[in-house]
Records
---
Amino acid sequence: MLNLGTTGGVLFSLALLWSLAWKGVALWKAARAGSKPWFIVLLVVNTLGILEMLYIFVFSKMAGKKGTGAKGTER
């Protein structure tokens, strides 16, 4: 079994919490926008929050400008 030690365990825990927080927000925004492809990609791919941040701050805003929000309304 791999022994990460105390520092490795703490770093792993912090990375896990960081990733879960961003993933939760990004999945929520993708679901609210009705974007199934983005939801699936965000659910499957783990990038320690990088892809999730890009979706939240870039791609979801691009979709909002086009008026492709859920049920034809912008959020």
---
Amino acid sequence: MEIARNHAVGIENIRFEIGNAADLPFEDNLLDFIVSTGSLHHWKSPVKVFDECYRVLRERKDGYTMGARTLPKAKLIS
């Protein structure tokens, strides 16, 4: 997290959070973009996580997830 924050110095509209991906601490239709890298294989219930991402993303916004075992393939959800 520290590395990500250091790379984002000077960017005002970015926020980093640690939490439960199957129970995101955000209201519905709040976020413009979600990124998750290297965590997919840790999710106990991927369907719940994708449902949560869909719930918190604004309409016509995007999420990006890339699992460690699927490198270099990436999947875009929207």
---
Amino acid sequence: MTHRVLVVDDEPDITALVAYHLAKAGFRVSTAANGPDALKAAREERPDVIILDVMLPGVSGYDVLAELRRQDETRDVGVIMLTARREEADRIRDDLAAAGVVLEDGTGGTTWRRK
């Protein structure tokens, strides 16, 4: 079974780069450039994972994530938050830590796990 990934970013070059590498690795990839399109695609396509930019025009990635969690059909979809801004990366790390999720550096790479 091929896993489905939805890439959400308003920067076409970033979207293309991420989608290319995921497709090359064997994933089925779809894309969206804004929050409303991302929510629609998530409901219709039922991806296994969403790679979601924090800084989207109009509706932030945090707002999209909150709406995904409110809807029954998207509540359990895995979400990876994507950002190029250091302050946002720090905020995401702090939010995850507050939720009981810790970062582990292992020989197989960096992973997140619940405490």
---
Amino acid sequence: MVDALEAVGHDIEAAASGTEGIDAIHQRPFDLVITDLRLPGADGLTVLAAAKEQSPHTEVVVDYRPWIGGNGGRRDEARGLRLHHKAVPDG
């Protein structure tokens, strides 16, 4: 994914763990964060919360599909939606 996004001109920063991703989020703003739900160090919902806390309008995609590598379910999906809506008020 990194190579494909860079090939079309996007500035990409990849992280090997959720903790690394959160550190990057605290260093500079991002327009978009793409994360897996299950990560070493900190899970994708923790990354989502950190991104929204740092910049409420940052778009975050959390991949929770079990066949991609995560083990997410409806409970994790609902928690992620609550975190997103809490961070971005209507209007």
